[in-house]
Amino acid sequence: xxxxxxxxxxxxxxxxxxxxxxxxxxxxxxxxxxxxxxxxxxxxxxxxxxxxxxxxx
Length: 57
Description:
Blueprint: H1 8-18, H2 23-40
């Protein structure tokens, strides 16, 4: 799956994670990305619908 990120901060940090030269470098970038997302995306609205499903025997 290919996704496009329009936020340059997130895109740059994702690039740093995927191109890290070591596990430690990747972990540092991942932690920075996680912190950025925690500040930038405190809530995400998924949809505007409710779906109920009921079954009986």
